[in-house]
Amino acid sequence: xxxxxxxxxxxxxxxxxxxxxxxxxxxxxxxxxxxxxxxxxxxxxxxxxxxxxxxxxxxxxxxxxxxxxxxxxxxxxxxxxxxxxxxxxxxxxxxxxxxxxxxxxxxxxxxxxxxxxxxxxxxxxxxxxxxxxxxxxxxxxxxxxxxxxxxxxxxxxxxxxxxxxxxxxxxxxxxxxxxxxxxxxxxxxxxxxxxxxxxxxxxxxxxxxxxxxxxxxxxxxxxxxxxxxxxxxxxxxxxxxxxxxxxxxxxxxxxxxxxxxxxxxxxxxxxxxxxxxxxxxxxxxxxxxxxxxxxxxxxxxxxxxxxxxxxxxxxxxxxxxxxxxxxxxxxxxxxxxxxxxxxxxxxxxxxx
Length: 352
Fold this sequence. Notes:
Helix content is 29%, strand content 24%. The chain is α+β, with helices and mostly antiparallel strands.
């Protein structure tokens, strides 16, 4: 049975690799995935390019476990020596864009769901393949959740080596504007906005917010872009820079924004506060069960659809995060088989 499930999962993964599925451009892959799910005998529900399935034994009187992974990929980086859209097998490896992030989790959870749906269970199962995860788009998980039944717990498939991410950093992107006064570069006039920006950027580089945890460590703030000036002989009156903030569970994004407003001279405009840090208690039954199976807990620095979930969630999936968004991305066939077996064991034994 396990081999049959993994063979079907690998076959589906290889077909998905052939279909470009960049964030906000998932219609073609979503169409294919919907037809595949229906061929498996399930009723596919669709919200935008998100596909979700309700277990055949669903009952309003039972709690509900959501199984989730995402359909979309980033665009291929330079440096690929394989065709990103041709699944290429080399021994136990399958190369192709999205194999690791997040195709392996997507197909492993689907075929685990298909097996578990045949069994009597004390809780409901819902499977969701989400869109726009890589850009945290508003037409992805955020649009999907209001259409789902009430969810009590989510298992999110992302490449974690099948260890358990019990906490995940949030994300806030800040557009910052240092304001000066234009002047001629040859004369001692004007106020250079670049120099004002440098002072704020140095504060960001050297200051660590005091509250942190063992799982997620400190809040990480990184200046990633800077833009100023119109020509060499004009003192710039504006310098824009972008700050990437990865929040831990000790601070909300709003709190970090307020701290920066008090300490920086630049004007700060947050793009959004909506992508919060998330965590699940170590005594949650699914965490305890996973640890009992020998899985290691850790805090994840990377963002997922968990940031948009307002219910307990755990991140766990085949592959390795270090392979994501890289040239010659790959997954190993043995990782998919192990993931399906692990998911079935974990989900069938957990209590909600």
